[in-house]
Recover the amino acids of this structure.
């Protein structure tokens, strides 16, 4: 492959994965993606003053909760 060549991109739907496209209703699928979005979870934890890389949630003390 030359530097000027672009790789071919697959034409896959945005909601497909290794298991194929979702069979859920579109609104339910969007909700599931939202509640399992790791980036949003990390942002919410960081907004509460915790560094997810330094303080894993499993190490929280009852005093900090």
């Amino acid at each position: 492959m030359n530097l000027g060549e672009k790789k071919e991109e697959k034409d896959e739907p945005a909601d497909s994965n290794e298991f194929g496209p979702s069979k859920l209703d579109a609104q339910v699928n969007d909700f599931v993606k939202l509640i399992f979005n790791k980036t949003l979870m990390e942002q919410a934890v960081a907004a509460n003053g915790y560094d997810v890389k330094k303080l894993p949630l499993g190490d929280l003390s009852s005093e900090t909760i």
